[in-house]
Every structure is written in structure tokens, then in C-alpha cells.
Amino acid sequence: MVAKPFTSGNPLADRRACYAATMADTGDIAAAIEVLASALEITPDWAAGWFRLGEYHEQANAPEEAATAWRRAVALDPGDPFGAGLKLDLQRQVPVAEMMPAAFVELLFDQYAPRFETSLVGQLSYRGPQLLAAALRETGLLRARRALDLGCGTGLMGQELRPVCDWLGGYDISAGMLGEARAKGLYDLLQKQDLGQLAPVAPGYDLIAAADVFNYIGALERIIGWCAGALLPGGRLAFTMEAGLRSVELRRSRRFAHAPAYVAEVLGHAGFQAITMTDCVLRKDRGQDVPAFCVVATLDRAAPARDLNGEAQVPA
Questions:
Q1: Judging by beta carbons within 10 Å of its beta carbon (0-12, 13-18, 19+), is residue 159 exposed, middle or buried?
Q2: What domains does the chain contain, in order, with CATH numbers?
Q3: 36 and which of 20, 250, 287, 294 could share a cystine (Cβ 3.0–4.6 Å)?
Q4: Helix axes 175-184, 102-112, angle to 10 degrees
Q5: Which residues contact 279 (CB under 8 A, 6 or more apart)?
Q6: Which residues pair with 191 in a beta bridge?
Q7: Kind and range of the H or E element at 302?
Q8: What's the DSSP call for residue 172?
Q9: How far is the C-alpha of 209 from the C-alpha of 223, rounded, in Å?
Q10: What tens digit of pLDDT does each residue of 108-127 get?
């Protein structure tokens, strides 16, 4: 799916794209490719059009043509709000990107925000926040003085955390999701933040939670290093992961899965101990259970918070 409005700004090209979409929906992919290609002759700088053309070529089992179209989309819009680079990674069967493009995640969830809870909870049986809350209770955490909900979305995790937190903050990249969370009145602070670009902060939290968030990050070293720097000694980091066989695995859903051994290694290097991992089913995808695991890790009280490059975290 394209993660922002599929429009070229040219009415004729847009009409042809609509015809192409209708043809694709009826199964006539060859005709859809031909009509959309004619639209791109009118608007050759239309990145969304090139992304959609790549999808049509993918459906037609023409990987080289699909890759050419996706490369054109990235060249026209290097921020890659459509996730074309991830499509290319999937073709190579190796995750080259360390995380999802920020523009892709932001625009995807801005569009998704109004129907997020209905779709995720009602249709996909998502229960990450409940699983994380249960895992925290099992590790003995009954109350937190200051907690941070990373990738807070519409506030589903916040609903679980608010009753046991004196102060609760939330970060998310999507203004639309933050608007939904703000309406719930759960958080003491809500900020628009790109989790891939967080500035180091002084240790100040005794709990950081991330429900269904790290699945949009490939390499975990940076974000877990940041969490280690932001937590007080003895603080807890709790998050959910989709389970994979390789250290980092990009799936066709354009979400990352991770191997438990890799996650444990990164946590250990960051100074976490008492790491517990519990197998679970996070949600459903196309009617099938998505294997996952809940993680709760405690920052070593004796070790200073640090990042994974060996550099001390300093206040922002």
C-alpha cells in the first residue's frame, strides 16, 4: 500500500491511475501496467505512481521491472514515504535498511490513526499492551515513578500504564496518532519524536515500554542504547518483538522480526540484566497467529548507563 494520498496533481494522470487501479482490482494486471505507464508519461516525476507501478509489476511476476520502478520512486523522493526501499530489500532477501524510513512510518500511521484501534484490536486481535503489562507484573513491578511509552500510538499501552505510574510520557512519530492519544487524557507529556533520531538524555525513567514498536526497527543497538542511557539504574525496559530465525529479518509485511538470541545479546551489551523473554501471540496477520515474545530487562544497578558505542550518555 502507498502510505500517502495517491495523487499526481495532474487530473488526466490521476484518472488514468484510477482506471489502472480498477483494472488491477479485476485481475487485469497487464492492462493496469499499460495504463499507469501512460499516466507516468504525463507525470514522470510522480514518485507514488512509480511505486504503484512497481507493485503491479510485482503482481505480474516481473521482479526486474518492479525493481526499476521502485528505484525510480526512491530517486524521486529519497525520504521514501512509500517504503519502496523496503520492497527492494525484500527482493534481495536481506534487510539492508536498519529501520523503516521515518517518512514511510509517519505517513502510514497518520492515515491509519482514525481506524487504528478498530483495525488492530477488533480485526487483528492485537494484545501487545496487555501482554506487556502482565509480563511487568510477573517481574515484580507494581508501580513506576516515571514511565515513558515509546511509540505510544493512540494510547493503548498508556491505558495499561496509567494506573501504575505517577508520571507518564509518550513519544510517537505520527501527529495523527498523538492526537488520538491526547484525546484519552492519559499522558502527562506527549511529544512528536522520530525514535531513530532521539537525542541522548540524562537518566530519568524507571520504566520504558515499547509495545509493537521495535518491529519497525531493524538493528536494535541504537534504540536499546538510548533506553539504557535514559533509564535510572535498576529501571526496566519492556517491549514486544515478532519472533524470527535470523538476527534481523525483514518480512513481507514490511515489518522486522528478530531472533531472541540477538535481542538478548544487544540488551546484555547495553548493561541490562535479569532478562526475561516470554513467547506469545502478538496479533493475527491474514488470519494466522504472529509468533512473538515479550521482553522485560532490568538495567544493571552497578553499571553506569551507556550507549553501545562505549560513549557515555550526556544530558541533551
A1: middle
A2: 11-93 (1.25.40.10), 114-299 (3.40.50.150)
A3: 20
A4: 50
A5: 243, 291, 292, 293
A6: 171
A7: none
A8: E
A9: 12
A10: 777 767 777 777 777 777 88
